[in-house]
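note to self — DONT lose this again. spent like an hour looking for the file last time. sequence + predicted structure for the chain T wanted, 63 res
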Amino acid sequence: MEPKRLYRNVNEGVISGVAAGLADYFVIDPVIIRILLVFLAIPGIGFLIYLILWIMMPIKKIT
């Protein structure tokens, strides 16, 4: 069995695929991740978390 990996899912993503990739990893709806990031963006930390994940998460390769 292949281990679970965290990737950006650009095929299902709205901006860069960060929320879609997190949703795939945690097996939840991407809308929940997006709402959480919006609420975290109000104090400013959500935007920083999103940028860090955008830079660090590799893109999922489609095979």
